[in-house]
Amino acid sequence: MRIVAAMSGGVDSAVAAARAAEAGHDVTGIHLALSRNPASYRSGARGCCTIEDANDARRAADVIGIPFYVWDLSDRFHDDVVEDFMDEYAAGRTPNPCLRCNEKIKFAAVLDRALGLGFDAVATGHYAQLRTGADGLVEMHRAVDHGKDQSYVLGVLDQQQLRHSLFPLGDTSKPLVREEAARRGLLVADKPDSHDICFVADGDNAGWLAEKLGERAPNRGGDILDDATGEVLGRHSGTFGYTIGQRKGLRIGRPAPDGKPRFVLDIEPVSGTVTVGPRERLAVHRLRGIKPRWCGTVPTELDGPDVTVQLRAHGDEHRATVVVTDGPEGQEVDVELHDAAYGIAPGQAVVVYDGTRVVGSATISATERVPA
Q: Higher model confidence: residue 211 or residue 304?
């Protein structure tokens, strides 16, 4: 097959490209230029969008012996990922930009361009596994290395995208990938993993949002209220600086009467109100998802000991009952958790699993807390 290998400049994508070439595929390496000004993105080895990363990817392609190109998708990335990130925070929600990048950029814009150029598939360094099911559909499963499993952020992929994807690292642990990179002479063998959000240069999400949102924020200041008494505990300079479940940086100034820490329970961007309270008030037992994306056949109801949901990229699995219904604006996903989850915010993704198989995902629109 003719394969486009998306090379971020890290060790995982380099080894994935090398494995694809070694398997006999006709591989072309590409690096995605996602920043309109790469010099403004994070320097060093913490990100995936720097000039340094592009150079690392080019050197890896030279060692592997494959052609290499840079594809400029900065405008598409800004519109579909960065703007979405800002809009969601301004609305009081908590988005996952990596998941949105996979949906809109790596497996939409890149795949569309690759197919248009006559390529058959896109290979990436994500940790997930693909298998063909008994019904002939391509199934996505968790990686062998559950500690590095990235199926959560790939839960937005549909059947068409899965049929044109390759994940060569799904059967390997991260330490073995690094050892293999060293054996192959790839200089990125010891390069640290990327962290945080690639377009937030210093990892300070709240500071970045305060600078970028400007007057777009519906309310740049407001009260911090106690959930139990309604008392005003302090002031803040923007709801976009808070996420549900946050404990640090609340700037309340005094502890709760019982001495226990407070957490952000609710965010209301229109009034500018942030409500805080004890951790037990964060317990969620039901949630609703909208805009679902299914990896294969659309389910109607999922229940049983193997049905779970994951609510964060590296979060726990929760046994659940999942029901798909038709709502006023399309399909909706109702999830009843068999054990409570804490700090779940609208805007996050709920990814549904049947054993190790990814069924699909949806964007959380509402949660229902365990009664006090």
A: 304
Nearest to 34 by CA among 160, 185, 158, 194: 194
CA distance linking residue 52 with residue 74, whole number of Å: 17
Binding site as annotated, residues for ATP? 6-13, 32, 125
Domains of the chain: 2-190 (3.40.50.620), 217-277 (2.30.30.280), 281-369 (2.40.30.10)
**What digits encode the pLDDT tens for the residues 115-128?**
999 999 999 999 99
- Annotated catalytic sites, by residue? 101, 198
Collapse the DSSP code of 343 into the 3-class scheme (helix H, G, I; strand E, B; otherwise coil) and give the result.
Answer: coil
Phi, psi dihedrals of residue 267, rounded to the nearest 5°:
-130, 125
What integer best gives the mean pLDDT of the chain?
89
- Amino acid 189 reads A
Binding annotation: 6-13, 32, 125
Gyration radius of the chain's alpha carbons: 22
pTM over 0.85: yes
